[in-house]
């Protein structure tokens, strides 16, 4: 097999290269074989290429001189995947079931004889055979959570785990960091606080959260999949899964935030003198004889059998509960989406969730073939998480750079300020993903609306496009544009595909 020949040739070449500077003299190679402790060092200078190896060693460490000068085998893979397409047209190349996908688009690129990681190549066709329009240097914008180490909880009984994305994984993501956390039935994320603001979206299951603010106002709420919470920096809080367990996403407003660096109540107790604890809490030191010696982090708990009303009542002090306009939760699961041709969106920002005063989020659902239109967010970075589906994104950064990425369920994305991007659904199921901004409002500029509201002769003179096209540019913001599940489609003119008429109506209303 040519593939194997090629590997062998490369390995052979490497050995020859490393053989060149090898010293001809060396000391004892293996005490276990030469034995006799205290024996004189052996001078092997007269015995070239005869290393003393351990029992069971076979073959020669070096190859023969006949190998010098080999340039390796220029093996060519026989199977060539899809890639005859016009590189600048940049159609999505679906390589999910291509046996031997290749870094080829039309005339550009060449085969890859290996070694290679085929599942990664198949998941990232726009990295393997990028569109001809990609150019220059754009920082990496993709981090699969599946590549982050999942830190397990403590105490056994499968209490849960957490894994994170921060600037260690994705250096460009300086304004926000993310954590994916799972709590088993009734398990806790230990009582804690931290230096960053914490925003959360519940992916599945349900949870009870509680917190106390600087005024002594208390807060307890029950949340389910699709809901949000927010804890300002420094506000101590607790999180307990219900008996169905929970998984949630956390976003912090510091790119280098580490989930391992939070301030835990167990550590607060373990790191202060017991006498101080006794004085502080006005008790006898014996009270603390069984406190945890180590942090608990994520651990199993007993079921909370109280109703929400009972729980709230039990923790309300003289300052009362947190006022509604400062609530730490938002029941986004109950918000109706805003639907447009091609998909829908739910937007939440400080105008409806005021305590999260710098977190703005849009949760998009994009139908197969449809696309989140080309846009940018004025002065804000964007943090993404893909909850479902397969999408591709081209990040364009002026003056001349662009790079295309492919995203799957569980991937984090990050687009720095000012760069434009689209999100195209390239799969057969809906793409669900979120855009999170550090911004007081969810705001964006739509490229189509911009040109639709620019004097038409300016657009025409600049881009050299027909007047008939300029007449179709929208004056409203579409957010999403419909498309076709046949990804070789190149004509998206109104009426040329299902739902296009709706799009025209929305664009000119
Ligand atoms: C809650 O109910 C369960 C089942 O009835 C019981 O085992 C548990 O002890 C109760 N927990 C509390 C805190 O009362
Ligand atoms: C909530 O309302 C109170 C009273 O009107 C006001 O002082 C406070 O600033 C508001 N909080 C937020 C986060 O808007
Ligand atoms: C919001 O976040 C941005 C980006 O991190 C920051 O520049 C800005 O100061 C923040 N605003 C507030 C009110 O925290
Ligand atoms: C997809 O569209 C192309 C033309 O754009 C057509 O040739 C092809 O047959 C279509 N494929 C399917 C599966 O409909
Ligand atoms: C694109 O589709 C429209 C609507 O079906 C049609 O009128 C137009 O001729 C097509 N354009 C091309 C270049 O085929």
From TrEMBL:
Domain of life: Eukaryota
GO molecular function terms attached to this record: metal ion binding
List of residues binding Mn(2+) 2: 375, 377, 382
Region Disordered: start-end pairs: 92-164
Signal peptide (from-to): 1-19
Cofactor(s) this protein requires: Mn(2+)
InterPro entries: Bicupin_oxalate_deCO2ase/Oxase (IPR017774), Cupin_1 (IPR006045), GPI/OXD (IPR051610), RmlC-like_jellyroll (IPR014710), RmlC_Cupin_sf (IPR011051)
Record-given protein name: Cupin type-1 domain-containing protein
Keyword Amino-acid biosynthesis: no
GO biological process terms held by the UniProt record: oxalate metabolic process
Active-site annotation: 435 (proton donor)
Keywords: Manganese, Metal-binding, Signal
NCBIfam families: bicupin_oxalic
